[in-house]
Specification:
single chain; alpha+beta; 5-stranded mixed β-sheet; two-stranded antiparallel ribbon; 7 strands; 10% strand
Length: 350
């Protein structure tokens, strides 16, 4: 049974399709091309059960194998047109060659009585051959596109799930008691010493929450929009850490027109602050720069002792959202001194 299992693009076995489909196709061909009715076709099929089943099986398995070979070679949906053209050409060559060999075998066979299946005209045999070929191709193409449709639905569901997780992750990071406590303490210290800075702090705090609400339904944003969100978040933590946090953003204007998934920079910045020591003696240096089609978010490694609390879904969620939304992979590099995340920048054309 393993020899007649569909390859992965179909996702299921065609064993029962073969068991039921080959006899049914042979009966259908007998009824349409070699008899005048279904009843006569059944009698014709019974009389020629072995040759009818063998010839139908040859065409079925031959065309099936051609479909599978090309399906493995051309798996990307963008290559469907090339795959279909090559499939038709190879199937025609196989069908014509096989039909010619079968006709030669039938012509050389000795028969003592007339047989409508074997003695039919070349035109009927050609029609039966073409019908069998088109039927097999239609079945497997229908299976293939049904599988693609099903996979696209599952991908959409996964994307929606990851998008929801990203919203929850961003909200969790901004409304958890630690963040609010630290932000309010910072604000309380600013009010008596520098009221104007306190007003700016409140404004940036409101922007952080507004950005989350504005972006929660979007699957992609421009890098310029994302940098604005990052700026508000970094302003808040910058007021808290002061000179203990050094941020260097170097992104050219052309790169800012490209797209990334929303709130990814904020989550990466939060992770860097959460997992590393941030102090005057050991300042955390965070870099955000465009480089060879990627946005690189890099920080020096000075990990805190012990495991930091958190869901651990932030970076995994960003990776999955890039893969589902754009079909691109996020690259992560860790050395003894630095931790870097490479986010693909998606052009408008893409």
């Amino acid at each position: 049974m393993n020899r007649i299992t569909l390859i992965r693009p179909f996702g299921v076995s065609d064993f029962w399709l073969l068991v039921i489909g080959i006899p049914l196709l042979a009966l259908t061909i007998s009824s349409i091309f070699f008899a005048g009715s279904l009843g006569e076709g059944w009698l014709c099929y019974k009389q020629n059960f072995l040759p009818a089943t063998i010839s139908t099986s040859v065409f079925w398995f031959g065309n099936r194998q051609i479909v599978f070979i090309l399906r493995r070679r051309y798996q990307d949906p963008s290559e469907n047109a090339v795959r279909l053209v090559l499939t038709v050409l190879l199937v025609l060559l196989f069908t014509v060659g096989t039909a010619h060999i079968m006709n030669l075998m039938d012509a050389g066979a000795e028969r003592t009585e007339p047989n409508p299946f074997l003695d039919s005209s070349p035109g009927k045999k050609v029609g039966a051959t073409v019908f069998a070929t088109l039927t097999v191709l239609a079945i497997y193409e229908a299976l293939f596109y049904f599988r693609q449709w099903k996979d696209s639905l599952q991908a959409a569901e996964r994307l929606q799930k990851e998008h929801t997780i990203s919203q929850l992750e961003a909200l969790r990071s901004q409304v958890n008691p630690h963040f609010l406590f630290n932000s309010l303490n910072t604000l309380a210290s600013l009010i008596p010493d520098d009221p104007s800075r306190a007003v700016i702090f409140v404004h940036e705090l409101s922007k952080v929450y507004r950005n989350i609400l504005d972006l929660k339904e979007r699957e992609a944003v421009t890098l310029a929009e994302e940098l604005e969100c990052l700026h508000s978040y970094l302003y808040l933590v910058g007021e808290r850490f002061g000179e203990s946090l050094h941020v260097d953003v170097r992104v050219d204007q052309a790169a800012q027109r490209n797209y990334i998934v929303p709130l990814s920079l904020q989550i990466l910045a939060e992770n860097a602050i959460k997992h590393n020591i941030v102090s005057r003696k050991k300042p955390l240096r965070l870099e955000v720069l465009s480089e060879d089609g990627f946005l690189v978010v890099r920080n020096n490694l000075q990990l805190k002792a012990g495991k930091q609390e958190g869901t651990g879904t932030g970076l995994r969620n960003i990776k999955e959202r890039f893969r589902l939304t754009f079909g691109k992979d996020v690259r992560v590099e860790e050395t003894a001194t630095h931790f870097s995340v490479y986010l693909p920048l998606i052009s408008i054309e893409s």
